[in-house]
């Protein structure tokens, strides 16, 4: 459910070499395609939905 997460659209870069290989960096000063980056979550709603799905799954096994 996308409404559980607060996102920002940011140009992203991924380090591909060195000690920080694999690190993603959002850089507002760069041009490029924007990606949605999750910066917040409605914890109470997320946990409720997650536990509900786990409970349903457990009931079917």
Properties at a glance:
Ribo_hydro-like, 28% helix, 61 residues, hydrolase, elongated, alpha+beta, hydrolase activity, hydrolyzing N-glycosyl compounds, 1 helix, Nucleoside hydrolase
Residue-averaged pLDDT, rounded? 93
Weakly predicted, low-confidence segments? none
Taken as a percent bin, the fraction of beta residues is 25-35%
SSE order, one letter for each helix or strand = EEEH
Main beta sheet strand tally, sense and closure: 3 strands, antiparallel
User: What is the total domain count?
Assistant: 1
Rg value: 17 Å
Share of helical residues = 25-40%
The class by helix and strand makeup works out as alpha+beta
Q: How is the largest sheet built, in terms of strand order?
A: 2-1-3
**How does the overall form come out from the CA principal axes?**
elongated
The total count of strands amounts to 3
Note the total helix count.
1
| First-to-last CA distance | 25 Å
């Amino acid at each position: 459910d996308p409404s559980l997460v607060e996102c920002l659209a940011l140009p992203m870069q991924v380090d591909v070499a060195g000690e920080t290989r694999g690190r993603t960096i959002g850089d507002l000063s760069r041009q490029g395609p924007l990606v949605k980056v999750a910066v917040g979550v409605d914890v109470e709603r997320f946990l409720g939905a997650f536990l509900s799905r786990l409970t349903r799954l457990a009931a079917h096994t």
